[in-house]
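URGENT: need a sanity check before tomorrow's submission.

F., can you look over the Distal membrane arm assembly component 2 like record below? I want to be sure the sequence and structure line up before it goes out.
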Amino acid sequence: MNLIGRQQLRRQVLVGDATKLFKRSFWTWLNSVFNIVDHERIKEVGPDRAAAEWLLRCGAAVRFKSFDKWHKDYNHLPTGPPDRLYIEAIDGTDSCIYSRGFDYLDGLQYVLWLRFHRCMYLSDTCLERLATIDSMVASLQHLEVKSCGNVTNRGISALHTLRNLQSLILFDLPGIKNQGMLVQTLNKSLPSCTITLDPGC
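Structure tokens as predicted:
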């Protein structure tokens, strides 16, 4: 390859790298915007409706108490008095939720089921925050954390406060080490919980 060809190739590589960096920065910024907590909105429509709006903005799905269907479309959330709309289940699969928005979960008193699957922004900080939300500690019965690369033993260990948890599924978590000791610790704190751990963790 001659000098001109090498220079052209180098320019293409630099432009490609700059484009990737811009896209990554843009999506990081956008996700950050989606996760900003609007406390005025919570006061206006109640914690469940505000949390549902946040979750759907971030690509998650919710199921309300007394509803059979999952809601995934922000524009088709059910209407009605805030005191009659309660989130019962959250599916965060492929969503961009992260710790900054977890204040939206504060006050949700009826969440029984929660899934984090391929959540690239989910971290130990998120799980630690979840484990300190009184309403979630009291209600949550089923939790799945799957294919979330930023979760380590620290985040999973924090779940020991979820006293009503009956089922905990952990799968494809490369950050988990010493799984036997981790399960033993959780079993002591959560004797009524069935813990399913992927051997590959």
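My own read: The first helix runs from residue 3 to 34. The longest strand covers residues 87-91. If you see anything odd, call me.
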